[in-house]
Amino acid sequence: MAIRKTVTTPHGIEIRNAYHRVESLSLVGKDKIKFHFRASVDGTLPHFADTEYQCTYLLDGDNPIRQAYKYLKTFDQYIDCEDC
Predict the structure, then answer these.
(1) How far apart are CA 83 and CA 4, in angstroms?
(2) Strand (E) or helix (H) holding 34
(3) Are residues 21 and 37 in contact, defined by beta-carbon separation less than 8 angstroms?
(4) 25: part of which helix (H) or strand (E)?
(5) 8: exposed, middle or buried (C-beta count within 10 Å: 0-12, 13-18, 19+)?
(6) CA dihedral (10, 84, 16, 71) positive or negative
(7) Residue 35 phi/psi, 5° resolution?
(8) Per-residue confidence (pLDDT) for residue 16, from 0 to 100
C-alpha cells in the first residue's frame, strides 16, 4: 500500500506522482502507533522526504498500516492523493 502525489521539494523541484509510503511502524503503548512517511521518485530510489507521525491506534480496527494511511488522509495535503 502506498499513495502517489505530485510534490515540490524544498529546492523547488516538482516530482510528478511521487511515491509515498508508511515505513518503520511501531506501537507506542496500547493505543498509539508511530511511523515514518517517506517519499521517493518511484518507490525504488532512495527517499527524498521523511516525516515522522504518531496517531491513535484502534486494536480492533484495520491493520496498523491502513490506520496510518487513514490518519494521513485527514491532512489537507493528502486528501486528494491516489492510492497505489
Answers:
(1) 6
(2) strand 32-40
(3) yes
(4) strand 14-28
(5) exposed
(6) negative
(7) -155, 160
(8) 95
Distances (CA, A) of 40 to 33, 45, 62: 22, 6, 26
Quickly list DSSP for 36-81. EEEEESSSSSPPSEEEEEEEE--TTSS-HHHHHHHHHTTSGGGTTP
What is the per-residue pLDDT across 8-53, written as a single tens digit (0 to 9) for each? 988 899 999 999 999 999 999 889 999 999 999 999 999 999 999 9
pTM score of the predicted model: 0.88
Rg (CA), the chain: 13
DSSP assigned state of 11: T
Q: Are the CB atoms for 77 and 51 separated by under 8 Å?
A: no
Burial tier of 80 (Cβ tally within 10 Å: 0-12, 13-18, 19+) = exposed
- The grid coordinates of residue 73 equal 488522509
